[in-house]
Sequence to fold (351 residues):
Amino acid sequence: MPKKVLVTGSAGFIGFHLVKRLVAEGWDVVGLDNINDYYDVSLKYARLAESGIAKGKINWGEPVQSEKFPNYRFVRMHLEDAQPLQELFSFGKFDAVVNLAAQAGVRYSITNPGAYIQSNIVGFANILEACRHNDIGHLVYASSSSVYGLNEQMPFSTSDNVDHPVSLYAASKKSNELMAHTYSHLFSLPTTGLRFFTVYGPWGRPDMALFLFTEAMQAGKPITVFNHGDMLRDFTYIDDIIEGVYRVINHPPKGNPGWSGKNPDPGSSKAPYKIYNIGNNNPVKLLDFIKAIENALGIKANMEMLPIQPGDVPATYADVTDLVRDLDYQPATPLEHGIGKFVEWYLARSS
Fold:
C-alpha cells in the first residue's frame, strides 16, 4: 500500500515541488494551503493548476481531486482553524506530515507581526496537536536558516546556539523547534525540523531576490542591492532541497542515545527529535549571484546600492555534515545551471 502524507503549504514554492516528487514516487498525497495574498495568488493557482487542481473547483474545506494525478487531492484550509484540521487528520489516516505552511518573509514580519503569530505559532500548535492525537509516524517541518540570527560562527551548525534571532519570522521558526521538541519528549512524536537555506529555482517566490532581480532587469529597471552587495548566501537549488526533504521523510528520528543534559546538543535529543540544516554548503557572493543572472538573461544589471535591511544577516553558510552522514545528502546543482533553469521558466511564463 502507498504511504499517505499530508503536505501543508502545497501551493507554495517548496510544497508544490515536493507534491510532484511524492506523487511520482507513488505516495498518496493530500495537499493543504490557505492561498493567502502575501504574494500574487495567481502564481499559487498556477502551481496548483500544474498539479491538476483547477481553481474553479476549490472551495474552503472541501478536498479536490487532481485531474493529473490520481494519488493527489488538495484542500483549502487555515492551519489556525483547529477543528477542521483535526477532522482532516481523523479522516486522512496519514503516515507522515510535512508542514511547509507558514507566513514567510523576514521584512514583512517587522510590519505585520500578527500574521506570524497566527500562522507560525497557533497554526503549528494545531499541527502538533493533530499529529499527537492521530498517531502520525513522522512530522517534518520547515524551520529556517534565519534562526541563526546574530551567530557569527561559520558555517552554521545545528550544534550552535540560536537564542538571538533578529526578526519575528526567525523567532517564530525557533519557537517551532522548541514546540516540536516538547511533543517529541512528552508524546514520543518523531519530529524533524529542516533549516532551509535560500531556496531558488523555477516556480520560486516573487518576493525573493532571484525573481525580483530577473523581473527588474527584464523591465530595464534598477535592482536594489542591500548592504552594498557585501552579502553571502548559501543559495540552494529546489531539486536539491526536495531530494533532502524526501530522504528525511523516510527516516524518522529515534532519539540520540548519547545525548546528555550536562552538555546538551541543540540539534538532537533523547526524544525522537532532530534538526538538520538543508543547504548547498557553498556560500556565494551576492554580486556573483547577480553576475550569473546577467549571463543567463544577457542583460547588464543597473544596481542601486543600499544599507543592510532590518532583520537581514550579512551571511549564511550551512554545515550539512549531519545530513550527509545520516542520509547521504549531496547537493549538486551548480549556481549557473540553477539560475539558468529559473530564467528559462520565467521567460516562458512571462511570454
